[in-house]
Amino acid sequence: MAEIMVIRALFNAGEYEQLSHENTQTLRFKSDMLSELNGLPGADNLTLFISPSQILFRKLILPNAGYKITNQSIAWLAEESMIADSESLHWTVLAHSKEAVHVAGINIAELEKIMLPLTAAGLQITSVLPNGLHLPYEENCWSAEKDNEGWLVRFNEYQLAHIDEAWFIHLINEHAPETIITSELLPTAFDSIKSIDGQHCYDIATMSHINLLSGALKPKPPARRVSKKLSLILWSALGLALLCFFSLKALTIGQLSNQAHEINARIQTTWQQYFPNDKHNNNYKFYLNQKIKDSYPDAMTQLSHLHAAIKLSPGIRIVSMDYNLRKRSFDLEVQADSLSALDVLMRNSEADFMFTQRTDDTAPGVYHLRSEKHD
């Protein structure tokens, strides 16, 4: 099992205690003395106990059994029971069931302030726990322990506090449970006291599943040094991989360039076949669209428009038709049952043609129509 170092941050800022196995020895350090611990066994695997007064404990009822538990969703559930902004805290799940979740919230800035002297001294913190988890827990009981700064109290399995003596006396007098578990002399009279030895902080550090460094605060695994031989092999493999990559890239670019030249040559040959007098050698799409635009409306388009106009004009029959490609105009000879039928044709076709008419004196009812140049 990996060596572990256990440090407890005291409530007074800037002071820390190093805890040994079974609490047989406790060493106190100022923050500027922590560098003495660097290099000792467990310096890269440190568990830090912090005061529960800096942690917000909550039991939250879940809206439904499938409720997704995230830092954001916990903040939303906790918001109604808080005065401060719940989203400013980092939340850790201590335990959860289908109906409820026990969580602990801590201000990240405050946590980093506590951890900074340790990390600055070269110690690697892998776990942060609330102080008081070593106190025994029983249903309908409190457990308490006195220290130099007040009373450490465990109200239930996931509810801890560090309070001064006056506040502890008030809680005992007003809200006391059936039994208080403690080996200390309580500051006020209480009938039911039980003495049960709790666990040691060192044991809790090795066994607890709780870690306030969760989610985004979860520590990254320490980097391992690589031997020179393995480093040389890795760099050689990286160099070979880069050489292969750039060689393949250069080869691919060369092949694509040759293909592009071949395709461009074929397009230019095809272009000259259809447009022998056009000397453009690039941007064929633009010039093709320009030529289509210049030739609009073409003969087939105009013929479809003429067919539609005649179809809507009863009493009109085409006798003959001629198309002038250069002028893009029609010469029609039509037979009309009456002048009104001819007028209907003229109206139906005026959107696409500007016909002028003359009468054929040799053939009654036959008219010659010529379309002017279309806009």
Beta-strand residue percentage: 25-35%
User: Could you give the order of the helices and strands?
Assistant: EEEEEHEEHEEEEHEEHHHHEEHEE
Number of beta strands: 17
Question: What is the residue-averaged pLDDT?
Answer: 82
Ends: how far apart? 92 Å
Q: How would you sum up the global shape? A: elongated
From the alpha carbons, calculate the radius of gyration and give it in angstroms. Answer: 46 Å
Strand order of the largest sheet: 3-2-1-4-8
Structural class: alpha+beta
Walk me through this protein's architecture.
With 375 residues, this protein is of the alpha+beta class. Helices cover 33% and strands 27% of the residues. It is built from 8 helices and 17 strands. The chain has helices at residues 71-78, 108-120, 165-175, 201-207, 228-274, 284-295, 299-311, 339-349; strands at residues 5-9, 15-19, 26-30, 46-50, 56-61, 89-96, 100-107, 125-130, 141-147, 150-156, 159-163, 179-181, 193-194, 316-324, 329-336, 355-359, 366-371. Strands 3-2-1-4-8 form a 5-stranded mixed beta sheet, sandwiched between helices. The protein has a 5-stranded mixed beta sheet with strand order 11-10-9-12-13. A hairpin with a 6-residue loop joins strand 2 (15-19) and strand 3 (26-30). The longest helix has 47 residues, at 228-274. It is elongated and about 140 Å long. The N and C termini lie far apart (92 Å). The mean pLDDT is 82. Belongs to the GSP L family. Keywords: Cell inner membrane, Cell membrane, Membrane, Protein transport, Transmembrane, Transmembrane helix, Transport. It is a single-pass membrane protein. This is Type II secretion system protein GspL. Residues 235-356 form the GspL periplasmic domain.
